Amino acid sequence: MVKIRYILTAVALFLLLGAGSANAQWTVIDPSNIAQSIVNSTKELTQSTTTAQNMVRNFQETVKIYEQGKKYYDALRSVNNLVRDARKVQQTVLMLGDISETYVTNFRKMLTDPNFTSSELSAIASGYTRILEEANGVLGELKNVVNITTMSMTDKDRMDIVDRCYKEMSRFRNLTSYYTNKNISVSYLRAKKKADTQRVINLYGKGAEKYW
């Protein structure tokens, strides 16, 4: 029977996505570095930006980081024919990408939404970064499991951690969606008072109506 640690080692190599060396570690393209770069960029944005116009301009750096990372997540998503346990590792990493995508996609829209003040946009961005930081911490624990030099754990220990990381990352992904929807609902309700809900629907999509 193939040991779980060897299955996870194979996934770790898949996560390198073309590193070119069978003994390479999870460092060539590290999803945790992508997420942390987005966090750092957003923190700089919220600390140095005082107007919505400047925030829109400065947010382009965060978008640039995300788009570079998206190439990694798209490549990882294309990896098929993994065994069940290895796929759970893959899906956990991809959920971190989903969190980043939800943040960048929706916050970019919020930056053009007149129903938010610059201070509110800064607070919203800070909320996203807090979630992303917590989710990135989960990925750090997962990295310890797939690290090919970690041999002291039993197969059951490894899979228990993989299962816990998967569930935690799923919780953070759901929290990101909830947080996004609640913020959109604020805009929708403000627009409703001004009889301007169509603007919000056009910006966020027809589903915006359900958020309130």
State the main characteristics.
7 helices, elongated, Four Helix Bundle (Hemerythrin (Met), subunit A), 75% helix, single chain, 0% strand, mainly alpha
Question: Can you tell me about this structure?
Answer:
- The chain is an all-alpha fold and 212 residues long.
- The protein has one domain: Four Helix Bundle (Hemerythrin (Met), subunit A).
- Helix content is 75%, strand content 0%.
- It has helices at 4-16, 31-48, 52-77, 84-110, 118-146, 155-193, 197-204.
- Helix 6 packs antiparallel against helix 7 (197-204).
- The chain is elongated, with a radius of gyration of 19 Å.
- It starts with a helix and ends in an 8-residue tail after the last helix.
- Residues 1-10 and 16-28 have low confidence and may be disordered.
In short:
The protein is mainly alpha-helical and 212 residues long.
Question: Layout of SSEs?
Answer:
Blueprint: H1 4-16, H2 31-48, H3 52-77, H4 84-110, H5 118-146, H6 155-193, H7 197-204
Helix pairs in contact: 1-4, 2-3, 2-5, 3-4, 4-5, 4-6, 5-6, 6-7
Number of helices: 7
Structural class by sheet pairing and helices = mainly alpha
Question: Portion of residues in helices?
Answer: over 70%
CATH class identity: Mainly Alpha
Summarize the helix and strand pattern as letters. Answer: HHHHHHH
- The outline comes out as elongated
Mean pLDDT: 82
Largest sheet: none
Structural domain count? 1
List low-confidence stretches: 1-10, 16-28
CATH architecture group name = Up-down Bundle
